[in-house]
Design a protein that fits this description.
By secondary structure, this protein is α/β, with parallel strands linked by helices. The chain has one domain (11-264): Alpha-Beta Complex (Spore Coat Polysaccharide Biosynthesis Protein SpsA, Chain A), CATH 3.90.550. Helices cover 40% and strands 19% of the residues.
Length: 291
């Protein structure tokens, strides 16, 4: 497994690495077809230069040729824009200007995406090795044959030191029924077919945290997803927005369920919401005690 780790001040090493791993622009389409679909990787970033470089390089390193990279920067001032300029030849489209949140950024990116499949990453995420897109393609082909529009794998959750904390992602046959009650599959690295957006629309920008769940629920409440069981797609750090704001996330899940016409009461959601309340109270109490 190849994990790219290049420090921010090692520009010469970085440039040599990029030349070695990929000599073509990232939006170079080689015989794109049903068997070799174009995959668009979309990244949203705001002042995350330290992890953003690893994210970019993990995408550029992919040995699958029919790919494109779109980056939406929310107006960073920490060096992220300088990274975009450095890797400009490998990026299909990027911009840096204030936005209204991650779902607004992703929606703007969709206006420039030409792929058959879309994958969304945060600046703290990175593809697990250089063969991830290549290994996902057989699943994308199979899903098209079965008219399935969502494909996901396992996600590696790590701490700030890069140590593996847990793996997320289970077979659809085990967790599919839970989707109507909350997010039961990992979104980082998940593949969305273009037709999903054409039928259901884009991300609802009124959500802060659960906009991905809202979008997927429109599709998955009535249709299955495909699990790429042997692919650990993405490494992402614990402590993201959803991890640290689980009470808000639970409320937004409730909102998404109502939007999709699901029954108001859900014992699964109720348990998750109660746990979020207790965790929130516990964190406040701990903070007060420390003070």
């Amino acid at each position: 497994m190849l994990l790219l780790k290049v420090t921010l001040d090692s520009s010469d090493i970085t440039n040599n690495l990029l030349t070695t791993i990929n000599n073509m622009p990232i939006n170079s389409y080689n015989n794109a077809s049903k068997d070799n679909p174009v995959i668009t990787v979309i990244v949203a970033v705001l002042n995350s230069a330290k992890t953003f470089q690893l994210c970019l390089e993990s995408i550029i390193a992919q040995n699958y040729p029919n790919k494109e990279l779109i980056v939406m920067d929310g107006g960073s001032t920490d060096g992220s824009v300088e990274l975009l300029k450095r890797y400009d030849n490998y990026i299909t489209y990027w911009e840096s200007q204030p936005d209204n949140g991650i779902y607004h950024a992703w929606n703007k990116a969709l206006e420039h995406a030409r792929g058959d499949w879309f994958c969304f990453l945060g600046a703290d995420d990175r593809l697990n090795n250089k063969e991830i897109l290549t290994r996902l393609v057989p699943y994308l082909q199979k899903s098209c044959e079965q008219q399935i529009r969502v494909v996901y794998g396992r996600v590696v959750k790590s701490d700030n030191n890069g140590n593996v904390v847990r793996l997320e992602g289970k077979p659809w046959t085990e967790v599919g029924w839970l989707m109507k009650h909350g997010m039961s599959i990992p979104h980082p690295g998940l593949m969305h077919h273009r037709s999903l957006f054409e039928q259901h629309g884009n991300f609802d920008e009124s959500f802060r945290i659960a906009g991905d769940y809202d979008l997927l629920l429109r599709e998955l409440k009535d249709h299955p997803a495909m699990f790429a069981e042997d692919v650990k797609t993405v490494v992402c750090q614990i402590g993201g927005v959803a991890d640290s704001n689980n009470l808000i996330a639970a409320r937004e899940v409730f909102k998404a369920r109502r939007k999709c016409g699901l029954p108001i009461f859900s014992w699964v959601w109720s348990l998750v919401y109660l746990r979020a309340i207790f965790r929130n109270l516990a964190s406040r109490f701990t903070f007060k005690v420390k003070i």
